[in-house]
Amino acid sequence: MSRARLLTFGAVVAATVILAVLGYVSLRQWQASAELLFREQSRDMVTMAAEKVEMAILKAEEECLSSLQAILMEPTLRPEALDEWRKKNAIFASLTLVDRQGRVLYPPGASAPALAGEIPEGLWERGGRRHLLVGDQVVLAAVIPGADGPVLAVLGRSVEAVKRDVLAKTLGGLEGPSVLAVLDAQGDLLYTSRPIEQATRVLTVAFGEALPTWRVALYQPPGVSSRGDVRRQAMLFTTAFALLLLVIALGLFATYRLLQRETEMARLKSDFVANVSHDLKTPLSLIRMFGETLELGRVPDEVTRREYYSIITRESERLTRLIDNVLDFSRIEGGGQRYDIGAHPVEPLIHEVLDAFRYPLAQRAFKLDVTVAPDLPEVLMDPEAIKQALANLVDNALKYSTERRRLEVSARQEGTWVVIEVADEGIGIPAAELERIFEKFYRIGRSETQRTRGSGVGLALVKHIVEAHGGRVGVESRPEQGSRFSLSLPIAPISSPLRGEG
Ligand code: ADP
Questions:
Q1: Beta bridge pairs of residue 372
Q2: Nearest protein CA to atom 25 of ligand 1, as residue
Q3: Which atom of ligand 1 is nearest to the CA of 275?
Q4: How far does residue 390's CA lie from ligand 1's centre (Å)?
Q5: 10 Å Cβ neighbour count for 463?
Q6: CA 286/CA 277 separation, integer angstroms
Q7: From start to end of 158-278, where are the E strands?
Q8: In terms of pTM, does the model score above 0.90?
Q9: Which ligand 1 atom lies nearest to the CA of residue 461?
Q10: Is 379 helix (H, G, I), strand (E, B) or coil?
């Protein structure tokens, strides 16, 4: 392959590689930013959910505390009222009331909780509340104004009630495939908005001060996450890209084959020109040489003179044949070849062709066998064209015979066909080449290594002529054994001389 072609192919390959790299990089970037966006959106959503829960808890506590305050403001503290209160406010599992002096007001007989001593003076003064952590439990400590001074209420939460009254109410209504869950201090699942099943945890967000040890988590079922989406898109992109690469590769291959064929055609054409010029030169120089000798009157006897004349005739016939071949070939290529088809006998035509070869046959001591079946029907043909085809076959048989010089020409009827065969015992044709010898310009081996000269259009012409007659060409050959070419032509319908064009 030439440098220019290599460069072109290299450029296409390089462009493809650049495209592939760019595609890969942008796919990865897109994947990364899609993932980032997805995480941000998820975080926003979970943070919002956490805030909602926190607000709901605070609101519930607020309500509980104000109803508790109402009880504490009563002139006498009635334990039954507090028991009643506890029943109504199930969110708290325990309630202890302590006065500023550290006396337990409720439940009767209970000991003061440890954290009662840690309540800062300020809180006693101003009132208010605080979430405190005792172990991993959140305890609400609130200083509430009572009838006999401020009272410290220590409230322990009921996890079950929180789940039922707060989490289920705030997180339960989530739409879409995502699942929200609440994890406790150990990371165990406390609550899920719906069964988690195969879903995977995407991220967790901490609650605020009201739920310091718990976290909200977002779960995504498989195939729903944006990662799955991205992966699907990436697959699609990769498949499309692979297809694109395949098309480019096929294109490159097709172009390469086309170039190869064109190079081959160019070589065959230049061989053709060289071969034809050589073939024209040989008979011309013979004609000239013998013509000049005769003109100078240097030939003493009549026999030699006759021989020279016949050489001139034979060589000019060869020239005519060659020129006819080339002209007909170019006419066929240009699509302008016409045949004058009619019903004609085959036998006289065979003899005419062989007559033209009488001299070279005799000179090279060829053994000639002609077998024409008696009573052969007439054939639909242009006799000049068929003569040319036959002459090409005979010429080849002569050209491609070396030691064993035997030419066999036969004609017989086979069904509705007349089959004319030309066989030799020459060099033969390798089986692999049998298909190609009928291609234009095709010659076996390269011109430099060939002993015989030829244009490479002879058999292409034979094939074209015979097929234009509605006939078939055939060949059987074995290297070193010889070749047998056959022309099958359709029999003419009885007494209807047709005229037509091929
Ligand atoms: P050419 O002008 O080269 O003879 P043809 O088209 O007549 O061109 O034949 C094509 C090729 O087929 C020849 O170059 C030759 O190699 C091979 N060929 C044709 N006829 C014969 C034959 N009778 N014996 C062996 N080879 C043959």
A1: 411
A2: 428
A3: 2
A4: 13
A5: 19
A6: 15
A7: 179-183, 189-192, 200-206, 215-220
A8: no
A9: 6
A10: strand
Helix (H) or strand (E) holding 294: helix 226-295
Is residue 369 over pLDDT 60? Answer: yes
Using the mean position of ligand 1's atoms as its centre, give its distance from the Cα of residue 317 in Å. Answer: 20
What three-state secondary structure class fits 486? strand
For ligand 1, is residue 492 a contact (CB within 6 Å)?
A: no
Closest C-alpha to ligand 1, atom 8 = 456
Calculate how far, in angstroms, residue 340's C-alpha sits from the geometric centre of ligand 1.
27
Name the residue at shortest CA distance from atom 7 of ligand 1.
458
Q: Each residue of 227-254: pLDDT tens digit?
A: 667 778 778 888 988 898 899 889 989 9
**Positive or negative CA dihedral for 115, 121, 126, 130?**
negative
d(CA 235, CA 203): 26
Establish whether residue 424 lines the binding site of ligand 1, counting it when its CB lies within 6 angstroms of any ligand atom: yes
Task: Using the mean position of ligand 1's atoms as its centre, give its distance from the Cα of residue 396 in Å.
Answer: 6
In this structure, how many other beta carbons lie within 10 angstroms of the beta carbon of residue 129? 18
Q: How many Å lie between the centroid of ligand 1 and the Cα of residue 341?
A: 27
pLDDT at 309 > cutoff 70 = yes
Ligand 1: residue whose CA is nearest its atom 23: 397
Residue 411 — pLDDT band, cuts 50, 70, 90?
very high
Contacts of residue 147, defined as CB under 8 A and 6 or more positions apart, other chains included, come to 72, 73, 74, 75, 76, 77
Three-state secondary-structure class, residue 356: helix
> Using N-to-C axis directions, what is the helix angle for 3-72 and 79-88, rounded to 10°?
160
| Helix (H) or strand (E) segment spanning residue 368 | strand 367-372
The residue count of the chain comes to 502
